[in-house]
């Protein structure tokens, strides 16, 4: 894969077949490592750049790659190759798929200072299933993990020694 020489982000799919690569020239590419071929190339917004990009998440069965680019969360179907927008949002801290791949959690906003921070749960078609605004007094450490297909946890701290976890039931 000679195109990887100028890359800044490499993310393996869960099954180890695909590799998502952010090229310095402003493209997100998906490489099939079994055939040594690039199968997808998406042009990213010039405003995004490698400094703001980096929020990607593979679905558990490697069918979808969710990513954040220029105020939108988008989804690529690896078999279909088309990127489609799912959600418009000013900033994304983290993306996380549920274990079965039914839901995508989006931690949106500036969650290090949490002024406008929320968690939004989408299905693979981009439908908003539920959302949770996060309290303004905390700093959020990110989406910890899914306890099961419908329960997500995340960590927080208040800067004065208080730490904990919160839980969101999707349905």
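^ Assign residues to that structure.
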């Amino acid at each position: 894969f000679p195109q990887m020489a100028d890359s800044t982000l490499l993310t393996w799919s869960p099954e180890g077949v695909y590799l998502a690569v952010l090229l310095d020239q402003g493209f997100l590419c998906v490489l099939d490592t079994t055939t040594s071929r690039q199968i997808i190339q998406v042009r990213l917004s010039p405003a995004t750049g490698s400094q703001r990009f980096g929020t990607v998440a593979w679905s558990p069965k490697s069918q979808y790659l969710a990513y954040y680019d220029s105020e939108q969360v988008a989804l690529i179907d690896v078999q279909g190759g088309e990127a489609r927008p799912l959600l418009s949002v000013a900033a994304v801290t983290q993306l996380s798929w549920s274990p079965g791949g039914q839901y995508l959690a989006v931690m949106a906003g500036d969650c290090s200072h949490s002024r406008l921070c929320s968690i939004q749960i989408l299905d693979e078609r981009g439908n908003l299933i539920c959302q949770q605004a996060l309290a303004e007094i905390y700093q959020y450490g990110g989406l910890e993990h899914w306890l099961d297909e419908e329960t997500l946890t995340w960590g927080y701290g208040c800067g004065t020694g208080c730490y904990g976890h919160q839980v969101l039931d999707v349905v």
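The radius of gyration is 16 Å.
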